[in-house]
Batch of 4 targets.
Target 1
Amino acid sequence: MTASSTGDPHDHLRADPHLGPYVESHGELEVEPAEDPFARTVVSVLNQQLSTASAAAIRDRVFDRFEVTPSGMLDAEEAALRDAGLSRQKVEYVREIARAFGDGRIDPDRYAGMDDGAVVADLTAVRGVGDWTAKMFLMFVLGREDVFPVEDLGIRRGMAALFDDPTRAEMVDLAEAWRPYRSYASLYLWRAVD
């Protein structure tokens, strides 16, 4: 699902008057499947509803102190995870996701033949995975090329900077111009507000 027969994502976005300048200034950003799907999913959970700086600090502590594997997260003491900066709720989420990876409820290989909507429905059945986290999974775990996470604050800020403060519904409509490469467009929108 990462390769597309419709052309080059960078050429497609370079031709867009709004995103073209960001493609030129930031180069060819890539959307690729994660080498470690569980660790990348944990990163998304840690990033939920936090500023970039806060999330990065917590992420660094978690990855420095723990083995970020399903068994490693299940074996870690709750107090130690809390000391690394996870809220009680995020400890529960990470552990439930670890169990889901362990028992096959979350299985990146199984998702290969499923469309994005079906993957989101499957993922959001797991406690701790909402629409935003599921879309991050599509983009950063599976490497899907056409995901537009309008729930993301950075995406909404990027859209507001480019399009004079549209509503979420208008953002979704405006992003249609970037199909089938909305994941790539999202990378450039994040860069627009970095």
Target 2
Amino acid sequence: MTTSPVKKGKVGPGTTLAGKIEYMPDEYDYRKVLEAKEREYHKSKLQEKDFCPRAKHTDTFNNAKQVYMEDPPIPPKKIKEEAKHIPPGEEGATHDRAFKPSNPGRKGIFGTIDKFPEHSPDPPTEKKRVIKDENAPESPPGFKATYKYKSRPTPSVATNLRNLKASFPGAFRR
């Protein structure tokens, strides 16, 4: 039977199979150094002037007057004369209509403008007398409650220890 040879070395702290590894110091702020290099690389790729998405102002092919066909002169607007108010009854008054209320009352019996209808008396009613039959059985008595108390406290309040002590102090004496 063939096996690999036994490993050589010491037992205990500082034991390694490949030998002693020398200490290599690391910069404390190496991350900042990398970020500075990346920033310098980025700035080297930028243009001299910042990017501006705004379009430059350019004139149109046709000006607004040509587009809207305003080359011929437009005649000025005619100004209407203001109508003078003349009170009714004088010469030149245009208002000869009758008065019409803006919110007239309801029509019918309860309206305020129409006349109320004349009173018509109610027709007389005939009284009918009922003769009791002596042989007929009597009607059952009316409803009668089966208890005399109108209300009572709920058991949770009635059996509360504090309420029982107040109601029956002699029963809880020491």
Target 3
Amino acid sequence: MAATFKERLADGRPLVGTLISLPSPEIAEVCADAGFDWLFVDLEHGLLGFPDAQRIVQTVGGRCPCVIRVPENDPVSISKALDTGAAGSIFPHIDGAEEARAAVRAAKYPPQGTRSVGIARAQGYGARLMESLENANREIVLIAQAEHIDAARGIEAIIAEPGIDGVFIGPFDLSGSLGKPGLIADPEVQAAIKAIRDACIKGGVPVGILARSAEAAKEFMEQGYRLICVGTETMLLGDIARRIVRELHAP
């Protein structure tokens, strides 16, 4: 039997994905066929809604795990994201242990949590309901996004919460929380990023981050990051388009 995404995340090898922000199963399919290990399906900032996310999971989920970033950390959003059959969820703006605990409880079926039991795709529309109830708590990946200086200061408490399977650093919002929006290279921002990374590595919790390029992703892997998201599908397309234009317009 093939390893689950959770098992692959736990085995220590880096997993490389990209972020999907457009409601296009075809684009997600192209990215999956390219060989990415996972897809970051973004319902917080992207143009996708829950129906779009489910279409993407239906299209590629069997060969490329999809992890859905919910638009907000409320029980309904978390349940709807997981009911698509996604491999897991990313919780945005987890700034402390209390928020991490609440998100995990919303994502876990009783007795570990309070997730409502739905009859949706993840449950085989009812045909695999008991299988889902038996396996979901064990197999679904739950990732806290650390994207505020408060998260950096409280990262040990966040990763100590049972059910948190990984941490994904959001460098842009983190820089904004320090009053330096977009200044990722600023020493104070880098120190906060390093504090999160080091605490996760020390605690044995997989840590991830957004990389702008393959070269940057390789550097992150060397630093111990294990869940890498290389750009977005729109960034990848833009990079290729600009490269073609430069090459064709070169003297």
Target 4
Amino acid sequence: MRALSMPMILLLALGRVAWAASSASPEGVWWTEKKDGIVELYRCGGELCGRLSWFRLDPADPNPQGLDLRNPDPALRSRPLCGLIFMTGFKPAAAPHSWEGGRVYDADNGKTYHANLMLQADGTLSLHGYIGIPLFGASETWTRDTQPVPPCPSR
């Protein structure tokens, strides 16, 4: 059996590190917990941001155009939800595979919450939103999507 050369060992090690880094990144496309939305997480400067790439629009929905009707700013109530950047400011945390200090806008009620993200060992992503301190809040578990994102709903 032939011994591996030092350059080959370094190349293999770097490939393994790159794979681990890519699998430890929340960047990409995620299904929300209820499978009624798809969110794209991406780098924006040195932070993570997220945009709503798709959402389910039920036939009886009182908002058939999918607009930001509950926004506290009346001037923004006519903007479409699809493509909306609703997650901003997530910075790497001290804990591995965690991001903190983010803000999440909830178009269902027009409120903005503090939030943290944590990539779980099983590959899911935990989003924890809260008011005040993280102890008081709610979490959702998102799953990575590997399929093409469908077009935004329209009527």
